[in-house]
Known about the structure:
single chain; alpha+beta; Alpha-Beta Plaits; two-stranded antiparallel sheet; 7 strands; globular
Amino acid sequence: MNICYLGIGSNLGDRKKNIDLAIENIKKIKNTYFLKMAPIIETEPEGGPKGQGKYLNTVIKIKTSLNPSALLRELKNIEEKLGRTKTVRNGPRVIDLDILLYADKIISTKKLKIPHPRLFLREFVLEPLSKVI
């Protein structure tokens, strides 16, 4: 089993409900266990189109036996199930699920980069991450 940290954010619709639904779905992933959640914080959007609403963000700590690619597929399925659609880069979204850290792995493929490439540049990730490590 591997300890992983996932970033969760939402700035469309009922943002808190979107986060709650995402966590409920993450808890249903086979061979994956929810361990801890940071307090939810509200932040201004970074990048993307002007006029977006504020985000709610949190980080959760999980334990999983899925490999990083399989975990990413599960997270993308949850995003799709909750209504996320691709728009512009850094645009508004119903839900955003990111693998921030996966055990002590460093991965750099076209589809997956761990640690998350902008992890250390984003206070809205670092603050909640510090609460669950």
